[in-house]
Specification:
By secondary structure, this protein is mainly α. The protein has 11 helices and 6 strands. It has 2 domains: 96 residues; 152 residues, no CATH class. The longest helix has 17 residues. The structure holds zinc ion.
């Protein structure tokens, strides 16, 4: 069976939160002993925790995992440059971790991120509801949702086809704050978009027609000036077909698209 680093991170998280409260660090060896793994594997666990903290803009909790000799974290610590380590420690010590639920709790029984992504893409509504109530932490839910869309859209922006993984985001068509629990994990309420198109979609400058056509709010470029790059990303895409998932149940639902149209005052027969 493949090693599940998330499951290990679920065990490491409360130990590190306790260290933070006590304003202490823990060595790779000690932490390895506490969670029952080889000390070399700790860097993967630290990596999971670091990624989560960075994405959620939390202090980098993994800074507390240090080498026994040097008293500082290993090379894998990249949340802060080396000359800001003191600040990194202070931020972690001063933060109240008791209010942050363990983001990896769902993995305690061995459930993997991949299994959750499978369930989102293949599962029934009741399965999605179950995942929602189980994972709880917004950052983790969004990460899983993004992975599901990455797979459904074959790793390309629905509007422009950009495939740089780091620049791709999961857009909610009915926004997270307005969506039901079910919609928050429903691929049919999502679009995989590059960061630029995500912003343009969220502010309503661009939308998607029911038949899968891209619409831009200034199709004749009258509100310029436009740079060549602006044109490529907006005007030139107006009327083009979006890149959508091959499975109909993963494509944006009519209900969600209608919501986006009315929220941003889009109207007309072409939608
Ligand atoms: Zn794009």
């Amino acid at each position: 069976m493949a090693v599940n680093h998330t499951q290990r991170a679920a065990r490491a998280w409360p130990i590190l939160c306790k260290c933070a409260k006590q304003r202490s660090t823990i060595t790779y060896g000690e932490l390895a002993l506490r969670i029952g793994i080889h000390h070399r594997a700790i860097r993967f666990v630290a990596g999971e925790i670091q990624e989560y903290c960075m994405v959620e803009r939390l202090p980098a909790l993994n800074v507390l995992i240090v080498n026994a000799q040097s008293g500082i974290p290993g090379h894998g610590f990249v949340a802060r440059p080396d000359d800001e380590l003191e600040t990194a420690f202070d931020e972690v010590f001063q933060f109240d971790w008791s209010n942050v639920p363990n983001p990896f709790d769902y993995a305690r029984d061995g459930t993997t991120e991949t299994a959750l992504v499978d369930a989102i893409l293949l599962g029934t509504e009741s399965r999605r509801k179950e995942i929602y109530s189980r994972v709880k932490v917004r950052g983790v839910l969004q990460r899983i949702f993004r992975l599901a869309l990455m797979r459904a859209y074959d790793g390309q922006c629905a509007f422009c086809g950009l495939s740089f993984e780091e620049a791709l985001e999961a857009a909610h068509i009915v926004p997270w704050t307005e969506a039901t629990h079910l919609q928050r994990l429903d691929p049919a309420n999502g679009l995989l978009l590059c960061a630029n198109h995500h912003r343009l979609f969220d502010c309503g400058w661009m939308t998607l027609g029911i038949s899968g056509t891209i619409h831009y709010s200034d199709p004749h470029a009258q509100d310029g000036p436009y740079t060549a790059s602006d044109q490529t990303s907006s005007v030139a895409l107006h009327g083009e077909k979006a890149w959508l998932p091959s499975k109909p149940e993963h494509r944006p639902s009519v209900e969600s698209l209608r919501h986006h149209h009315s929220a941003h005052a889009w109207e007309g027969p072409m939608l």
